[in-house]
Write a structure and sequence with these properties.
heterodimer, A: 310 residues, alpha/beta, Rossmann fold, 2 domains, 4-stranded parallel beta sheet, 12 strands, B: 361 residues, 15 helices
């Protein structure tokens, strides 16, 4: 008996694939059950479940899976090994997301699909159609559901990108700061969202690296800057910083401890971006916001004190 | 550049002997950096990103010491995971430190054939490919000899009657290996050394404790970085088995995908996909250790190592479900080994108590 409700943890892949996955499930007559936005309890639960040295977003992911226990027939944790976003690889945490979850919750029924175009796995279409079949749909139904889901996802993303472009064009703020970070950090209520709010409170316009239009040639920009960079999300961030270089007055790198790719990419960015102030903020599971506020304020002060760009 | 090209590379274990010979046969001058010491890791840690994995810090420190000693070409390999990105960031750091040098990164695909072709293109462009191939064959033979001898050393070290006798044979072997000119000589030396080890007096118990070492390749293969944990295990009377060495890495580097598919096939539910670098191997080998009746597993990783941390939930589950002892060790840029020594001692004691049947699963 295939599951009628499927839990979708609000973590990692979710923030970029939520519309796709939920629309796909709904088209097949399945009710997606999302975990609530990250709160202190989810984070603490995740930290307790995870191996100490796991990165914070993966800990939070385990907290979200735990929050879905008993609320759905099965929980969906896909494996994305590589992504079409700026065409590159995912970090190995995404490669292992399903195995980590299944070993942490041996008794929890899990659903998965495996997107792995570079290493002989299947495309996103192949993987999701496979999942659809597992959920009791015919091949035709699954293809149709996926096509619709992709249209929905594209529309949703287009709206976000367009809204940001409009905001930058119409802003009355004198200074613009780009926040370069993974989507799953920027969208998380315990990680990036408070930082973005603090920045806005300081009266600067905020550009999110994940909402700079792809048409700006993000991948090309990123590879010019760093030819060996293979991670899709980091290409997107780096490309966005480079593409927006003429428009921005400061760069804020938001990373979580101990993010593998970011540990290196943030180093390279600091060494190569020299014409605007760069601020690196490393987020961990401590939730005291006083220090964070001071750092954001002083960074904004530096950005505002500098001469306006000629 | 009018200066002759003098090549340097980071240390890992005793493999510098093989790397040096590869470069020499290919006609390059070589500056072997000083052996890894506290200074190496302090230099590396000072100039590295804060929470990068520790092999980055060791190899950066080693490259700095090589450049200080007069090298003008720095060589770094590329592998899986973060390793593929080491070279670019290390080059930026070394340039900001004011070193003048060419940076050569080898083998983007992690495949030994790519490394060879890259090496010829970037280090020895005027040398015929046949000579580079011969150089690599010689280097590979040397690495195989090192692996064969040291594998044996790990098995026997705990049981030598006269302390230090095995160490002496090993040191003699490494010294003579440096002087070998042909692959035949390497092979002869390997045979003679294994023969000599046969004659070292041992007092091996009927059923010694057997421990399998798994984990991330650099901290497994560079003894300084793991506080010489294999010697520590031997001091506590443990026979050490370690399937991961350069020989196994190279033989798996061709047809890697097939290798991974074979590994994951029989390992559900603990690992069903490739989880990066050696992480998959760590799980599969631990499962094999349970099956083959080993007494325990030691899992080594750099602090925050992505693939090995990925492997840990599965390893913990294996340990729990099979009541199987696993010692988890994280290595970082600190060399206080007293704490580790205590942990290894306690681990060995616990294995011995289990073996004696005092504790039942």
């Amino acid at each position: 008996m295939p599951p009628r409700t499927v839990g979708v943890p609000r973590s990692l892949f979710f923030h970029s694939e939520a519309v796709l996955v939920c629309s796909f499930l709904e088209s097949l007559g399945i009710v997606p059950v999302m975990s609530p936005p990250t709160d202190r309890r989810i984070m603490e639960r995740g930290c307790a479940l995870a191996v100490d040295e796991t990165c914070l977003p993966m800990k939070i992911h385990l907290g979200h899976v735990d929050a879905l226990r008993g609320r759905a027939d099965a929980v969906l944790v896909p494996r994305y090994a590589n992504l079409p976003v700026a065409h590159g690889e995912m970090c190995v945490k995404f490669w292992a997301a399903h195995d980590i979850t299944s070993n942490t919750f041996p008794d929890l029924p899990l659903l998965t699909y495996n997107v792995d175009r570079l290493y002989g796995g299947s495309t996103e279409r192949g993987a999701l159609v496979g999942l659809g079949r597992e959920l009791g749909a015919t091949r035709l139904q699954a293809h149709a559901a996926l096509s619709r889901a992709r249209r929905d996802a594209e529309r949703a993303r287009g709206e976000l990108v367009a809204r940001q472009s409009r905001e930058i064009a119409e802003t009355t703020c004198e200074r613009t700061v780009i926040v370069a970070a993974h989507t799953y950090i920027l969208d998380d209520e315990m990680l990036g969202a408070p930082v973005v709010r603090l920045l806005r409170e300081q009266g600067v316009a905020v550009v999110r690296s994940d909402r700079v239009p792809d048409a700006a040639g993000l991948r090309r920009h990123a590879l010019e800057f760093s030819p060996a960079l293979k991670w899709a999300y980091n290409r997107e961030q780096l490309g966005a910083v480079m593409a927006m270089r003429e428009r921005i007055d400061g760069v804020m790198l938001l990373l979580s401890f101990p993010c593998g790719p970011d540990s290196l990419v943030s180093e390279l960015m600091q060494r190569k971006v020299r014409d605007v102030p760069v601020c690196v903020i490393v987020l961990d599971e401590l939730t005291a916001t006083g220090g964070l506020q001071t750092r954001v304020e002083s960074f904004c002060d530096i950005v505002k004190l500098r001469e306006a760009r000629a | 550049m009018s200066d002759p090209r003098r090549l340097t590379f980071p240390h890992m274990g005793d493999y510098w002997i093989a790397v040096k010979r590869i470069a020499e046969i290919s006609g390059a001058e070589v500056v072997v950096p000083p052996r890894i010491t506290r200074r190496t890791i302090e230099l590396g840690a000072r100039y590295s990103p804060e929470f990068v994995c520790v092999p980055f810090k060791y190899t950066l420190g080693s490259l700095i010491e090589g450049l200080e000693n007069g090298a003008n070409v720095a060589c770094q390999l590329c592998g899986g995971c973060r390793f593929s990105y080491y070279a670019e960031v290390q080059e930026a750091i070394l340039r900001d430190l004011g070193h003048e040098f060419d940076f050569v990164s080898l083998g983007g695909g992690g495949n030994i054939l790519h490394v060879m072709m890259d090496f010829r293109r970037k280090v020895a462009p005027d040398v015929p490919f046949a000579r580079v191939a011969r150089a690599f064959r010689h280097g590979f033979r040397m690495a195989q000899a090192i692996d064969a001898v040291q594998q044996r050393v790990r098995l026997d070290r705990a049981f030598e009657v006269e302390p230090g006798s095995i160490r002496r044979v090993e040191a003699e072997f490494l010294r003579e290996l440096e002087a070998t000119a042909t692959t035949r000589q390497v092979l002869d030396l390997q045979r003679a050394t294994l023969d000599a080890l046969d004659h070292v007096p041992l007092s091996r118990p009927d059923r010694p404790l057997r421990v399998l070492v798994v984990g991330e390749l650099y901290v497994v293969m560079e003894p300084y970085s793991n506080c010489r944990i294999e010697e520590e295990l031997a001091r506590n009377g443990v026979e050490v088995h370690r399937p991961l060495d350069v020989t196994s890495l190279i033989s798996h580097s061709v047809g890697y995908r097939r290798h991974i598919a074979e590994l994951t096939r029989g390992s559900a539910p603990y690992v069903t996909h490739f989880i990066g670098a050696e992480g998959t191997e760590s799980i599969v080998r631990t499962l094999a250790a349970v099956r083959d009746g080993y007494d325990g597993v030691v899992h080594l990783k750099p602090f925050g190592c992505m693939p090995e941390v990925n492997a840990m939930p599965a390893l913990q589950r294996i340990s729990r479900e099979h009541t199987f002892p696993i010692l988890f060790v994280s290595c970082d840029a600190q060399s206080a080994d007293a704490g580790l020594r205590t942990r290894v001692e306690a681990f060995a004691d616990m294995l011995r108590i289990r073996e004696a049947g005092v504790i039942h699963a």
